[in-house]
Automatic annotation (TrEMBL):
Enzyme class: isomerase
Organism: Papilio xuthus
Every Xylose isomerase-like TIM barrel domain range: 22-255
Name of the protein: Putative hydroxypyruvate isomerase
One Pfam family cited in the UniProt record for this chain: AP_endonuc_2
SUPFAM superfamilies (UniProt xref): Xylose isomerase-like (SSF51658)
Gene name in the database record: LOC106116736
């Protein structure tokens, strides 16, 4: 098992994402994943990452104004050009930090129609072709409605159907076990059945999104072994909110028999 720190959730002891690269390295991490680093130039982010001497696995798509709750325009008709521009900007950042995966966020909306699904799939087709040319992987993630009400994609069946129809090695599923439990549970069977389409995994305890070893619904020692038994050997993103401090909350890794 390889664990990478999510700098949008962890190491908030650092005021900005630029400081968190170094904090993750000091805590023993070899790799990180991040949201899109709004407010920081490509050069600033690259310098912070390289100065920390740490690998970056994944970056989220540029999504618009997060302070207004904007989480992407991938499924919004009429905003295809904005999506394409955001994708290109994100690719530039991904290349700068050496990230091989981009999480293509779908967006939030009140009333979903068939045109939203058509736009979403067409934009993902476009993204898969572009990402193929630069040898990067796009991942899509169903997000539960408790955590992010009105998020467009919260159905694993629909996500997999789209991935299968597009049929590209450059578009896969981001499997966050936190969201999987909230949306449909039945983790053993769902992990096994979804694994052929998975390009990235994230974890957090349910319901409060803290460390895997806090009291909650998920038996993570079993789940981590189950992921491995079903063929997953890539990075696992720790997209959780530390219950106390980021570094103090890492004791679970050794107690589960793993290391950073």
């Amino acid at each position: 098992m390889k664990f990478c720190a999510n700098l949008s959730f962890m190491f908030n002891e650092g005021a900005s994402i630029l400081e968190r690269y170094a904090l993750a390295k000091e805590a023993g991490f070899k790799a990180v994943e991040t949201g899109f680093p709004f407010g920081h130039t490509l050069e600033q982010v690259k310098k912070a990452k390289e100065s920390a001497g740490i690998e970056q696995v994944l970056i989220n798509l540029k999504t618009g104004d997060v302070s207004k709750g904007e989480l992407g325009v991938t499924a919004i008709p009429g905003k295809e050009n904005e999506f394409k521009e955001n994708l290109q900007v994100t690719i530039d950042y991904a290349k700068a930090v050496g990230a091989k995966k981009i999480h293509i966020m779908a967006g939030k909306m009140e009333n979903v129609t068939s045109s939203n699904w058509e736009t979403y799939e067409n934009n993902l087709k476009y993204a898969a072709d572009v990402l193929k040319n630069v040898n990067l992987l796009g991942v899509i993630e169903p997000i539960n409605q408790h955590s992010v009400p009105k998020y467009f994609l919260s159905d694993y069946g629909k996500a997999v159907d789209i991935i299968k129809r597009i049929g590209s090695e450059h578009l896969k599923l981001q499997l966050d076990i936190f969201h999987l439990q909230h949306i449909c549970g039945d983790l053993s069977h769902n992990i096994k059945n979804l694994m052929p389409y998975v390009g990235h995994v994230q974890i957090a305890q349910v319901p409060n999104r803290n460390e895997p070893d806090v009291p909650g619904e998920i038996n993570y020692p079993y789940i981590l072994q189950h992921l491995e038994a079903n063929g997953y050997n890539d990075w696992i993103g720790l997209e959780y909110k530390p219950a106390k401090g980021s570094k103090d909350g890492l004791k679970w890794i050794a107690s589960y028999g793993y290391s950073l």
